[in-house]
Every structure is written in structure tokens, then in C-alpha cells.
Design a protein that fits this description.
Two copies of one chain form a homodimer. Chain A has 295 residues and is α/β, with parallel strands linked by helices. Chain A has two domains: 84 residues, Arc Repressor Mutant, subunit A; 200 residues, D-Maltodextrin-Binding Protein, domain 2 (3-Layer(aba) Sandwich). In chain A, strands 1, 2, 3, 4, 5, 6, 7, 8, 9 and 10 form a ten-stranded mixed sheet that branches. In chain A, β6, α8 and β7 form a beta-alpha-beta unit. The longest helix of chain A is centred in the first third of the chain and has 28 residues. The relative contact order of chain A is 0.13. At the A-B interface, α4 of A face α4 of B. Chain A binds a DNA duplex (30 and 30 nucleotides) through α3.
Chain lengths: 295, 295
DNA sequence: ATAAAATGATCAGGAAGACTTACCATGACG
DNA sequence: CGTCATGGTAAGTCTTCCTGATCATTTTAT
């Protein structure tokens, strides 16, 4: 019923109009002149009406042709737009990645990563949000974000993860605290000191130091508040090194050596679902960036 | 640089999505299944990115594919429209308009409009379908129809709209309902009465009467069912006047005066795309018809 | 007026592409 | 463990499309 108008003949028609003749159009399209003739005839047959006035030697549109031409032009333009956009999307020159990361990574690692990424892929839109590790994992599972950077808790069915770096756990206290002078600490040395729990405290769970958590009466989730409490000398806390702001001159970070604890930070994405081109580029970039940085 | 996307492979892709599998698509397109596979592979090669997830047995789009699919669908729809229009024009049927309208307009306004239109333009084919307001807008955007008559929700980028008329919102209840005797109503007077929500209830959102919706336990989308519920005295509802069938002798329409609410009905078409002659004629006709009718 | 040039149309042959038939690999299910 | 579904692959056939040569007609130049 409705004939299938192929794009090439339409392009021929438009080229004839733009270039002002069959021969010129042929040259413009890098085709031979008969090809143009045939394309036009094919179109005319499909539509059941002549597009060009016959008889006189010149290329002149029929009224029907005049009616068709702008629509054909629009259609071809539409095609080119779609094709170009898809091409741009496929080759990472456009697109969008949504990322979630735990706060420490978001504030200390991502700025550098994103700076070099936007430099390399200027067309890609990026959205970064932070949340605690389980929230990050959940956002990846639900598809709210495509990539997550978070603690590798335990292998989850729906997630695919790549380890990125190890982050050592240590004790944070004020510089004048008795523990501040140590080079490293055994967990027993913490007993008796007021311990403030925070969002990363669950990293102690399952280790010999787990018992310490039960003695702790304070839980502070906000990092700013936590820092203020530590500076006020209200107690000590445990943090991964990455989450400790090393610039703080009144606070000290002392690694826990027995047990030596660390969280493994990794890049997670949904399993069995391939990433968008933009997200794949981001994934490669993150991994390359951290690989470089290790050396 | 920009690959030439042929239409047939695009159709294959869409058929796979719509029919839910390669085999089903093949049957639908009267092709063999390998042809579909090859078409998809051809597309993927041109774009440089896979469109379908490999490995698992099911036909699942990659994110890139999900991004592409709606654009491809739009492009194919555009082609079909151009092809159909040209075909119609070639066969002296002078044209064709596809219109979508919200149900109230389709049932109460369009009969009169179309009656006079076919009288004036006997050669033009008309197709009218109805759907809720967002569906109408979407059909215009995708090019499934050229003209839409719908609630002007908020100005949309891809759409061009012309206001046609204002449609007052009111309360509909049975004639023996306590509210039926009023000439107009303040929204507070509705509290305590069982309110049935319907497809037009979102018109109350953002107004003082919005709170009423939360008390409502019933949502009925079908107008016939809604009328039956009202006649049974199960509750009251709000409707634009145009959606209320004035012939109903057991139901009453009482305007809401505080707040006075109205939906603006308008004629929408795609922006930056010229209408077919037939659609342009229809657009002029609709506007003239309603201008006449106001007086 | 006549030759020269340019227009588009036509035809046969060949290269490229698309479709089909037949067969293969894999995963779900009883 | 076999059966049925999925989609992927390979070789052969057929169609489509393009080219090169040639023709008919009109326009232009001498």
C-alpha cells in the first residue's frame, strides 16, 4: 500500500534540484549519470506520478514534484540528524553517565577523575551523587545510576564489580590524645577510650575488634559533625584512610595493625547488562586513572 | 562519516522490540529469521556499537539500543507519513490528515468539525483517534498524527500549539445530591463528600482544591463506568464541562467558582515541521469553526 | 546552417547486497 | 536426558544497483 521510499533516490532528487541537473547531481554524488536517471524513474514508479517534466531538455519539477521536494528534504534531513546523533552517541562524543559513589570517594577521588574525563570526552554529561555504600549498590541495582564506586561488601548476584583500590582502616584522634603518638595500634589498645561510631564502623564487624562497637555510645553519620567531635576531644573513631581528611592538622590517623583491616573499593555495575557507550568510557577511564596513579 | 541508515533494518529492529523476538519479527515482516539477524548486525556495524545484549538467549536492548530505539521509531514513522502523503497526493485524493484528540473533544467537538470539513474538502481522507492528553501529545511528537487537540499542559519544546478554547472545571453529581442545587461551589463545600477521581482530576493539582484528591479512594478512568457510578450515587466527581454529557438528565454540573479552574484546549502540531496541505487545511478549518461558534 | 556540446534516456553486463535454506550452538523445561 | 525454544552462521541464489557505452534531442557557437 505505502511504497517504501529509499533514501538514496530521495538524495538524488534533492541533488538534482540543488545542483541544477542530472549530470551535476551525478558528479556531486559520485555516481554515474544513468544511476541518477534510474533512481528518479524508480521513485516516479513507486509514487505513480512523474516528478520531472519530460520532453524539454532541462530538469524541471512537475507540480507534484514541487509538492514532494520539501517533504523529501525534511525526511532526509531527519535521517541525517538521527544518524549523526547515533554516531556521536556511539563514539562517546555525546551521552550521559550517572554515577554514585561513597562520600569519601566522591569528595577525594572523583574530582581528579572527572576533571581528566571531561577533558578527554567533552561532550558527555555527568551526574555524580554520593551515599553510603549500600545505597550506592542499590542505586546501581535499580538502574538509577549506571556505575557505582563503593565498598565491595560481598559479591551480590545482580552486580558485577571490579576492585579498584584497598583502603586501610585506622583510628582517628586528636593530636594530643595518648594514642596519637603510636605508629600502629592493636585493637586491645582502644579499650577504655570513648569510641564514636560512624557510617564506616560496620567495617569492623566480623573482625576481632567488633566488640569495641558495643562499648560505643555515640553514632555520628555526618562527617563534618564527626570531625568537630574529634577536635573537641570527645572521643576517637575509626575511619578508612581515604575518608580521613589528611589536611586536618589537629587530628591524627593511626593504622590498625592487629587486626589489619581494609575496605576494598570497587567499581560496580549491573550484571548481564552492557553499559551505555558513555558509561563504558567512564569505566575504562576510572580504571586507567587509578592504574596510572598507583605507580 | 555519517552512516546511511536504511529503513528496512530499522523496521526490523522495531519489529523485534514490538513482537518480542527475532522469530516473531521475522514472521511479522514476512522474512526469514536470519534476514533479521543480518539486518541487526548490519545496523550494529554501521553504528559501531551493539544494539542487543549478546549471550543470553533473549532479545534485550543495550542502553545504547534503548537510546536509539525511540529515535529510529520516530524516523520510520516520519518516512511512512511522507510516503503515505505523497501516495495520497499522487492518486489525486488530495491528501490525508491524521488527528488525535482527547476523548471529550473527539466525541463532542469533532463530529461537528469533521462534518463541515468533509463537506468543504470532499477529497481528503481523515483519521481520528482519541487518547488521554499526554498520549495525544506524544502521538504528535512521534509523527503518528499530524494534529492533536488536547489540554495545553505546559509548553513543550517539540510542539507548537494554538489555544482553541477554555473549558471550565466543575463538580458532577446526581440531581438529588445536596450539592446539585448550588449555582456554583467553593472547594471547601466538597469536603466530606465521596470524590471519585478520573483522568481529568490532575487538573486540580496545584490548586487549593488539590487536597481533596487525597481523600478520594476511587479512581475511574473509563467515562461510561464513571457515569454509572455517579448515577448510582456512589459519589461525586470533577470534570471539565466539555467532558460532561449535558444530555444526562439525572446528573448535574455545578461550576467550581473558588478556585475557578479551567483547562485550556489547544491544537498542537510538531514545531519546525511544515504541515501537509490537508493538515494545514484542517488546522485552518478547526480554528475558523470554533471562532464562528463562539459568537 | 552546421558542427559542437550538453541535456537526459536506454541497454547490457557485472559487482554488491539481501534473502533463503539448511545447519549449529546455547539455554529453558519437563 | 531429550525436546523445544532462542538466536547465530554458512553457502547458494536472486535481486538490486551501478557503470560504460550509446542514442535522441535540444541548445549553443561559429
Amino acid at each position: 500500500m505505502t511504497p517504501e521510499l529509499k533514501l538514496q533516490p530521495l538524495r538524488c532528487l534533492l541533488a538534482i534540484l540543488d545542483q541544477g541537473g542530472f549530470h551535476a547531481a551525478a558528479k556531486h554524488l559520485h555516481r554515474s549519470q544513468p544511476a541518477i536517471s534510474m533512481a528518479v524513474r524508480d521513485l516516479e514508479e513507486r509514487l505513480g506520478q512523474p516528478l520531472f517534466e519530460k520532453g524539454n531538455g532541462k530538469a524541471l519539477l512537475t507540480p507534484f514534484g514541487q509538492w514532494c521536494a520539501p517533504r523529501f528534504r525534511e525526511l532526509v534531513a531527519h535521517h541525517d540528524r538521527v544518524s549523526r546523533d547515533a554516531q556521536a552517541m556511539a563514539s562517546h562524543r555525546a551521552g550521559r553517565v550517572d554515577i554514585a559513589a561513597v562520600p569519601s570517594v566522591a569528595s577525594r577521588l572523583m574530582p581528579g577523575i572527572l576533571a581528566s574525563f571531561v577533558n578527554e570526552y567533552p561532550g558527555i554529561e555527568i551526574s555524580l551523587q554520593d551515599g553510603h555504600s549500600e545505597l550506592v549498590a542499590q542505586m546501581v541495582v535499580t538502574g538509577e545510576v549506571e556505575l557505582g564506586i563503593t565498598s565491595l561488601w560481598q559479591p551480590q548476584e545482580a552486580l558485577e564489580s571490579t576492585p579498584l583500590l584497598h583502603d586501610e582502616i585506622g583510628v582517628v584522634c586528636r593530636e594530643d590524645h595518648p594514642l596519637a603518638a603510636h605508629q600502629s595500634l592493636h585493637w586491645r589498645e582502644l579499650t577504655g577510650h570513648a569510641l564514636i561510631r560512624n557510617g564506616t564502623s560496620r567495617l569492623l564487624e566480623g573482625s576481632p575488634a567488633e566488640g569495641l562497637l558495643e562499648q560505643s555510645a555515640l553514632y555520628i553519620s555526618n562527617m563534618i559533625s564527626l570531625t568537630a567531635m574529634l577536635e573537641a576531644g570527645i572521643g576517637i573513631t575509626t575511619l578508612p584512610r581515604l575518608a580521613f581528611q589528611e589536611e586536618h592538622d589537629r587530628l591524627r590517623f593511626v593504622p590498625l595493625s592487629k587486626p589489619r583491616l581494609e575496605r576494598r573499593i570497587g567499581l560496580v555495575s549491573r550484571a548481564n547488562v552492557s553499559l551505555s557507550p558513555a558509561a563504558a568510557a567512564m569505566q575504562r577511564h576510572v580504571m586507567a586513572y587509578l592504574e596510572d596513579r598507583k605507580t
